[in-house]
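Hi there. Long-time user, first ticket. I'm pasting a complex I've been working with (about 621 residues overall). I'd like to know whether the download I got is complete or cut off, because the file seemed smaller than I expected. Thanks.
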Amino acid sequence: MLTLEINGTSFDVDVEPDTPLLWVLRDTVKLTGTKFGCGVAACGACTVHVDGEPVRSCSLPVSAAVGTKITTIEGLASGKLTAVQQAWIDEQVPQCGYCQSGMIMAVTALLAETPDPTDEEINDSITNICRCGTYPRIRKAIHAAAKLQGAS
Amino acid sequence: MLKTVILPTGAAVIGDSFWRAKTAADKLPVSFNMNEVEKFSTEDLLEKLESGLDSEEARTYAEDGDSKSGLAAGNIVEGLYKVPFLAHACMEPMNCTAKVTETGVEVWMPNQAPTLIKWFAEKIANVPAENVTVHTTLLGGGFGRRAEIDVLVMAILIAKEMKNRPVKLIWTRENDIQHDMYRPAAVSRFRGTLSDLGTIDTWVNRIVSQSVSGSFTARLLPWATMDAPDNTTSEGAADMAYEFSNRLVEHVPVKLPIPVGFWRSVGHSYNAFFTESFMDEMADAAGKDPVEFRLKHLGNHPDHANVLKKLATVSSWSTPLATGRARGVALHESFGSIVGQVVEITMTGGKEFTVDKVYCVIDCGNAVNPDTVTAEMESGIIFGLTAALYGEINFKNGEVVNKNFPDYDMVRLANTPEIEVHLAASGRRLGGVGEVGTPPIAPALTNALFAATGTRIRELPVAKSGFTA
Ligand code: FES
Ligand code: FES
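Hi, the file is complete. Here it is re-exported in full:
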């Protein structure tokens, strides 16, 4: 039995220690907002925060997440949408939406480090895949979220 | 593990979680009977396609005037073009949940064809139609892939072995890339002549590919004959708006052991690249500006001419760019909408370049929700750009070589160009917007590369010619 702290709540999970965190989140804890896209850390659909750092959960053994604070898309907003989530709605970013939890988690982590990123910094840090090609709006929404965050 | 199930096309492991099932499946001692498909590779398939160029079996899809005399009378410009197989690679890997009981079947599936899914669920589960329930869920990308029934059939066959419990079938990304119904590879040969006025007199085009409708029908209804003419093979080539005195557009259907399917814009996805590249070659042969040259062939097509003129204005087409920068244009009608695109690139050294900006003008009749039309153009352009830059599925010894995103790459934020979309709704009949942004981007890009370097790219992806963005 392993104990995980996810979105501020503690969970005991009965899984093999080498199970990727992604599948523990989805299948065991039933938090299905985190998505499976490739399983090889190449697309970012499975991005969550581990102690505030963006991590591709398909490639992190759950044993490595024990004793950390895990945040998933479900745990991002408390009562009110975050600046990133609001900007995502304002700029009408999602199409199919499948990549967007991972995008939002990656962008949230970027803005925590770099509150007003340049396009160059965005390019270097947001390498997630969106097959629907929402990238132009993602870029706009990142700048909009930076503004919203700065204003609050 | 709960159970291992042997299927006609493979084996599945049922477990209480995906990871446990996948880990067990990876360890199964499976070997496949490859028989006649055992040895083929991409080169064999391409050779078969190219042999179709001189086949007697061509079907005529457009014929005006007298192309034979036309060719005999002028100096012939010739071009041979090729595109590879492509995977859909929807962001959400294929999946389907099924629950089979003694009397019925219930299915939860992200799909693009609920009626078809319901019908096949009934047949495969062998239950009365009134006991079939299909829940069509939200869908993480479709692009034509989710109109197929393969995953449904597997899910029901597996669930039959675990009656009264829902079983969720999840494919890995490797399953998805290696077992797609691919966009067919195609080759296309052009022969054209110019009149004394410097316009196209004769246009002869022969396309060779598998038939998508034939392949799809054969999968669904194996007992049906599938040699009927297939308009999707020549769509975008046979129905071009450009006016020529003599025109002949033919297609030669070739049978290959690769399942091919509907991929965002279907035949337009390759015919736009073929035709709009050759239009550019003819403009060059005539010594004319590519936009001016196209306009000369649109005298009776005011809507097409309007899109092209508006595109020239918004992209400042006639203002020269700085050294090292270049632009290319393409105009293509599909699904009732006319789309023109101009691509601006910068050569950054040798064959390296950046795609800086795409101008896009669309006439879809009326834009019911203009922001959705704009979003679909952005989406279609990036989808087509991924294919133009990197997209190719290859085969070796009867297996797909590509496995996952590291070897089937995608455009990402860093190489997404700025995209400026303009709506030019003329009030003509409503057209589609979901697919129509994809066809023009590849030729607009390769025409820009020609303008920049003088190299005419006749094969996609451009990476094959050493060009990288
Ligand atoms: S699913 Fe984890 S990076 Fe793609
Ligand atoms: S919105 Fe569909 S993959 Fe990003």
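A couple of notes from our side: DSSP finds twelve helices and 17 strands in chain B. Residues 47-86+182-465 of chain B form a domain with the Aldehyde Oxidoreductase; domain 4 fold (CATH 3.30.365.10).
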